Amino acid sequence: MKKDLRFLVVDDFSTMRRIVKNLLHDLGYANVQEADDGKTALPMLQAEPFDILITDWNMPGMPGLDLLKAVRSDPKLAKIPVLMLTAEAKRDQIVEAAKAGVNGYVIKPFTAQVLAEKLEKILPLVATGA
Amino acid sequence: MSAAPVSTTLQQRWGEACLALSLSLEAGDEERFLASLDALTGLRERGLWDSLRQLDARLRAALDQFRLDPRLLRLAGKDIPDARARLDHVLKLTDDAAHRTLDLVESSTPLVARTSAAAAALASECRDAHESGAASPYWADLLVRLQGHLIAAHKDGEQVKANLVEVLMAQGYQDLSGQIIRRVIELVAQLEDELARLVQDSTGAASENRRELPADEDTRRGLGPAIPGVSVSTVDGQQDVDELFAMGVAMKG
Hints:
Number of helices of chain A: 5
Shape of chain B: elongated
Strand content of chain B: under 5%
Number of strands of chain B: 0
Number of strands of chain A: 5
CATH superfamily of chain A: Response regulator
CATH superfamily of the domain at 80-171 in chain B: Helix hairpin bin
CATH architecture of chain A: 3-Layer(aba) Sandwich
CATH class of the domain at 80-171 in chain B: Mainly Alpha
Number of domains of chain A: 1
Helix content of chain A: 40-55%
Largest sheet of chain B: none
CATH class of chain A: Alpha Beta
Helix content of chain B: over 70%
Distance between the termini of chain B: 25 Å
Oligomer: heterodimer
Radius of gyration of chain A: 13 Å
Distance between the termini of chain A: 16 Å
Structural class of chain A: alpha/beta
Strand content of chain A: 15-25%
Mean pLDDT of chain A: 90
CATH architecture of the domain at 80-171 in chain B: Orthogonal Bundle
């Protein structure tokens, strides 16, 4: 059941996407797709169902916060759990992301353990029927 | 139209000295020849001094502008020190990541080597025992050692697995340093623009002068047109602006 979850990992750095993908694989999640910014991620989200969105903030094109807001304002996507994985470290930013509806916020550099913990926390939010 | 005045200037400036030189050469008058040559080089040096003075003035104007331009001040006073700090941090990130990775490789290698060597030794012992038809106490002992090896191999394997996850995580430096470097690249591009503008402002004024000076070449001050960037004083600059402005109005009809 758990292993069937579909992940979308959004980061402009391919090294970071590989790291996250590998960590998810280690945790038993094999279904991971990638996008390099919000602009490419949004159509993917709209085209096929994803269970969890993991996104960076600072990206060219469409940054992660915009992607988050776009997801939250799209009735079809609004409920998808979103985990922010970013180096943005200002207090205001974190508050803002939280206000915009992010479900978890992992600051880079991070450990495999922290990512696993945050994921564990948002797993119950994964919609079973919607 | 423009060739005639230029040649006139040339003749006015150098004609007399050249004529004296060539006449004394033809006459074989060494004393006069050397005197004429001195006069000629004197003239040439004066030209060089003029151009040096002009260069100096342009440099001063550029430096004044550099000191007064708020964008350049911000770049020089804040952004560049910031960029240095950013690059220092990148250096630290890459250094840490490389050392972390090397540490992990160094601590993993003996584990893998030990497991591999022990497995090979036990495998050959098993083969020998099988071939020689060893007695059961021997088998019992081998079994104990085999079990010990498997436990150690499992432990080492787990450790190496954990090390590999850490090696994976250490590569995160590329993302972080990449973001920082991207900022610095933006700053360098800004700086490039500002410096290009500065250069254009100082040499641009000079090129306007060149355009203006043919009209003024009858004046004594107009002797400089052959040397690029005769004058960049405010007045000259304003004249250039006025000229360009007038030209633009005229072209509009």
